[in-house]
Structures are given as C-alpha cells and as structure tokens.
Amino acid sequence: MQTHDHEHDHDHEHGHQHGPNPHYQDPKNADTPPPGYYEIMEIAVRELLVEKKLITPGEIRRQIEVLDSRTPALGAKVVARAWVDPDFRSRLLANGRTACEKDFGISFYDDTELIVLENTDKVHNLIVCTLCSCYPRPVLGLPPDWYKAKPYRARAVKEPRKVLEEFGTHIPDDVEIRVSDSTAMVRYLVLPQRPAGTENLTEEQLAALVTRDAMIGVIKVENRSNP
Amino acid sequence: MSHTEDLLKRLPNDIGGLPADDIEQTDHVLLPWEKRCHALADVLDFHKIINTEEKRRGVEALGAEMVGKLTYYERWIACFAVILFQKQILTPDDLARKIAEVEARYKDTTP
C-alpha cells in the first residue's frame, strides 16, 4: 500500500494539516504529540474490528460527517418553524421524530424517539439524563460537558429551581417545573416560549434567537433582535 | 440500616436526586480521537454489536472508581473492549498485540 510516508524533508511549520483527513493523525508527523493510552486503545479496537470485517473505515468516516452535521442550529430551525406554523407545531408535539424527519429530512441515526415538550405560561420543562448522557443528538448534536457531569444529573431532578437559578433563570413559584429523564430509546427536546416583541421577525430571524441551552430548558429564549 | 444496602439499591450510574456540587458550565471541543470514539459507538450500534443500553451498563460495570476517574470517552473505549471480550468478538490477546503494534507505529519517528 503506497502512502505519503516519505515526503519528510518539508520544513515543520506549525499549524499545517498533514494528510487529507483531519480526524486521523499521521504517525510520522512530529508536530503532534504521540497518542495517549486511551487513544491507542481506540485505534486498536477500531482496526481490529475492521480487520475482522465487522465495520469499515468508511462507516466511521461517514458517521463523523453525520455528527459534524448536527448542531443546535438544526433544533433552532425546528423550534422557529413550530412558532410560525401551527400545523407543524401540532405534528411536532404529537410525534417529534416523524415531524423532524418529514419536514426537515433529519435522520434519527440512533433510532431514538423524540418527545417535544412545550413551555407555556404555566409549565417550564427541563431535560436531563440521570443515568448517563442521553440527549436529542439527531437535532442538537452532542451534549455539553456539564449535561454529562454529576452535578447536573444528580440535582436537576431534585432541586430544578435551584439548578435553573445557577443558569441565571428564575421561574416564578406559580409556574410548574417538569423535569423529563431521558433514556436510551426516548429523548426529549424543549420547545421554548416565543419571546414577546418578535411578531415581525422572519422564521430565519427567530431561529437565530434559539440556543442549545433553551432547548435543554435551562434558559429562556430572549429577544436579542430589539435595540 | 447497613451501608451495603444503599450500594445495592444504587448502582454507580444511578445518581438522580443525590446531593452534588454546584453546576460548572463546562464544555470542550471533542479531540479527534474522542469524535472517532463516538462514531465507533454509533457504528457498533448500527451493526447491533453494542447498543446504547449495553454501553451504559458496560460503563457502570467498570465500577465507581473508574467511572469517577476516567474521562467520558476513556470510559467508553474501556467498556467497548470489555464488552467485545465478553461477546468473544475480540480476545485480550488480540487487543494486546494490536496495542503493541499501534504503539510501535507512533514510536518509530526516526527521520
């Protein structure tokens, strides 16, 4: 197998990319430190599975592309559509997954169900995964580290008001807080309330207001479009 | 009430409702190997080799000390190795040999 191993008399400027794929490190590249114990284990497990023909390198590469294509911007589009299109909103609340698949072509690569929880004047929703890190990855991408860490997982179900205060979110006592605990098969997405004063914004402008944390439920969507 | 009773009722992952520190709003961009590890998890799930719930239980089975000390994706790759041994898809010998091979590849940096 011919590779590019021997073009090594180039000078070693920092910051340039070696090879066509930034997800893999060139073993002969002296610019980057050698992989650590767990990275070596990842390489070894993956290569063994490829050798046994149980997976292919192409599948890993394609899945990295899928992961890279999922960001909170996708969820924000779904939320903005629900704010402007009542028919879509009812279908989204009836079945989050099929509405996202049908109207946005979002694939649920992890084969999970999606339940969309609507915030109202009376109810504020918050999502968590107490057991691990289940999250609506197809529509939001990967969860932030704090979502996967012990303090949020342990406390969100016990003292959600206090947790929300730590995110700077005050929920009045007469508003019920509902915390939904995700599982391997069932994921949740919060449909935040549309902020006041956004009547004249386009769907695209509305989507730009919706953030990841608002779709987890730890903050509200703010109208940042007004001076 | 014995302390061991609590251990039985609460496996290491089952932390919902327990007292814990304030939330630090931490995040980081995944390292390339972490992203590959995530993609590997998804591909193993697609092929029904290791599903999400098996992965979660596999992490839990690493025990409280490892769950506490290893980082998120370190726990994942460690539990994949254990599950693949248990399912007799890989042997510890296979992995040891391959790890030595990969280490040698990265050590050989002489011009």
Word description of this protein:
The complex is a heterodimer of chains A (227) and B (111). Chain A has 227 residues and is of the alpha/beta class. Chain A has a domain at 71-216: Nitrile Hydratase, Chain A (Alpha-Beta Complex). Chain A is built from eleven helices and four strands, in the order αααααββααααββαα. A two-stranded parallel ribbon of chain A has the order 1-4. With 111 residues, chain B is mostly helical. Chain B has a domain at 31-107: Cyclin A, domain 1. Chain B is 61% helix and 0% strand. Chain B is built from six helices and no strands. In chain B, α2 (32-46) packs parallel to α5 (72-86) and α3 packs across α5. The N and C termini of chain B lie far apart (66 Å). The mean pLDDT of chain B is 92. The chains are: A alpha/beta (227), B mainly alpha (111). At the A-B interface, α1, α2, α7 and α8 of A face α2, α3, α5 and α6 of B.
In short:
Helices cover 40% and strands 11% of the residues of chain A. Chain A has helices at residues 37-51, 57-69, 72-84, 86-94, 96-104, 137-140, 145-148, 150-155, 160-166, 203-207, 212-216; strands at residues 113-118, 123-128, 176-181, 186-191. At the A-B interface, helix 1, helix 2, helix 7 and helix 8 of A face helix 2, helix 3, helix 5 and helix 6 of B.
Largest interface: A-B, 62 and 63 residues
Structure annotation, total helices of chain B: 6
What pattern of helices and strands is seen along the backbone of chain A?
HHHHHEEHHHHEEHH
Rg of chain A over CA atoms, rounded to whole Å, is: 22 Å
Assess the beta-strand content of chain A as a share of residues. 5-15%
Q: Rounded to an integer, what's the Rg of chain B over CA atoms?
A: 17 Å
Give the oligomeric state of the chains in this entry, treating copies of one chain as homo and distinct chains as hetero: heterodimer
Residues in helices of chain B, as a percent range: 55-70%
DSSP strand content of chain B? under 5%
What is the CATH first-level class name of the domain at 31-107 in chain B? Mainly Alpha
Number of strands of chain A: 4
* Helicity level of chain A: 25-40%
The H-and-E topology of chain B, N to C, reads as HHHHHH
How are the strands ordered across the major sheet of chain A? Answer: 1-4
- How many β strands of chain B by DSSP? 0
